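SUBJECT: protein chain
CONTENTS: sequence, structure tokens:
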Amino acid sequence: MVNLESQSWPKISIVTPNLNQGQYIEETIRSVLLQGYPNLEYIVIDGGSDDRSVEIIQKYNKWIKYWVSESDRGQAHALNKGFEVASGQIFAYINSDDLYTPYSFKKVATEYNQRKGPVLIAGECEVFENNIVKRVFKPSWPIELSYFLSKTYSSTFAQPSSFWDSNSYKKLGGFDESLHYCFDREFFFRLGQLGIRPLLIDQVLSRFREHSNSKTIAHAEGFHVESIQILEKHSKSLGIQIWQKKKWKKRMENEIEYSKVFRTWKEFGRIKAINAFTKMILKTPSMLFERKILGQARRLFTFKEKNVIELNL
């Protein structure tokens, strides 16, 4: 029998990439399946987890269109694998430690049906830790696309609250698999280059979980390194002047050095971190006048070693 209700809703394909997030993935899966959306296609790409992840995925096998557990070349590759078997009109992905809020898909579908042609939809996102909401990330869009190249953390909306049409994804060839941290921002930048501007929704569509193993916390240095790669790759297409590119690149390089000091502290202790800090300042003395560098110096010289974990390195 044909489900007439499903005919009125565009198919939404959701991909969840996962690697050893067994403590969170069930909540993520349920946030997708309990949407009550009548035309859903759910795909889970596991990177060969050795925790409880596969056991949990198998538990929901009946409601998952496709899943696999095998090694891959990183998150962007896992997502491309998932979307390769997807057949929806609307694509989105949710990481295995984040969540969708109730009825998000119906809201997105309603907005999608009112638009013609390529579409990017972005809503609000709750950032939480230990079930406590820390802030709400409200979506926006920059006046100039160069904004995406000028800073390390330059996303103007939260990835978990973003949805886009499948045709645009295919036209762009998916996510850049050479990137492991900034592939989503680079993808949204390329959507912008197609002339697509997002429809911004004043509603919380997802919840982003902050924890010690979150990429944005545990691998901050990687975001800075890849931001330089994105700048090098796309600056010419936007006509960015050489002096401006050098300025942005230098700022990103400074961010890398700043992150290295904290990483050195965490891995090798305060003394070596102080040595790394000193080398950083000798290399770029002007950094000493930045507020966060002064804050880093204060923590290095006054913070109790036993509390180093509190730095969110």
